[in-house]
């Protein structure tokens, strides 16, 4: 099932939601953004809990925005799970099947399949109030999947759990989604969760989608500074676009900065003109203590954090500070002068000044 949200608007006195995107058949698309950007409102529009002011919603070419919520065949897992406390696990999962008039034989078979899918076979007769948070989350997921929905909506389903349990359950969610092939829209504000789970990520801000791409595309080729700084850690350096050159692998942009001249092999935005202010953007892990590389910057180590699998080093160069993720590279002590380089192919340029 493919979902198309076409020029949808929802207008409130202090907020405006404008959406136009597709969810591909069988994919897990993440809606990622800060609180209040419109993620949950987007799910509520798709589910039919609220109506759009304009635009259309289509599943496989058939409009669903004219259908009531119960006829859209959409499964939903809420942040609070919304399980029925007076029912046991079996009856919670089977609730939707009874509402859709499944026969007792078919319902039993479906519930048994889902109990096995979420690894809760031994908990069928247990009251949900006697389950852990992770077990309740799996019951909620099984209940949403029971009537064989064409689309699954997950609204921050792991946010109430501790970090260790979140990591294990997101693997389970991904396994189940892949096994069933159900088209899924997943809301989160957790960056790591988005990168691990998503086939694609849609980054939202103030009611609009800023960029939709694969996790690798969003992380390494952000569309703008908001996307780049919202997802992951980044170094920002003010500069001025000096010239554009043609290289063997495409265009190279040369930028004058307060710490020297840097080159960026990623194509600079067309709206960025020669002589215009620009922001140089690069990730900490794209820095190297290797003097043989280009884009060298010299500075003084002011902080070093050893984190086991990697180390973060903060370097002061002029009035700027940079964070370097050096992995297991040999590092220097606080107070030492170092020279590091930045991979030109990993540098992004954005118009304007540093925020």
**CATH homologous superfamily assignment of the largest domain:** P-loop containing nucleotide triphosphate hydrolases
The CATH architecture name of the largest domain reads: 3-Layer(aba) Sandwich
Poorly predicted segments: none
Overall pLDDT confidence: 93
Report what the structure shows:
The protein has 355 residues and is an alpha+beta fold. The chain folds into two domains: 3-229, P-loop containing nucleotide triphosphate hydrolases (Rossmann fold), CATH 3.40.50; 233-351, OB fold (Dihydrolipoamide Acetyltransferase, E2P), CATH 2.40.50.140. The chain contains eight helices and 20 strands. Strands 6-7-8-3-9-10 form a six-stranded mixed β-sheet, with helices on both faces. It has a five-stranded antiparallel β-sheet with strand order 13-12-11-14-20, with no helix packed on it. A five-stranded antiparallel β-sheet has the order 15-19-16-17-18, with no helix packed on it. The chain starts with a strand and ends with a strand.
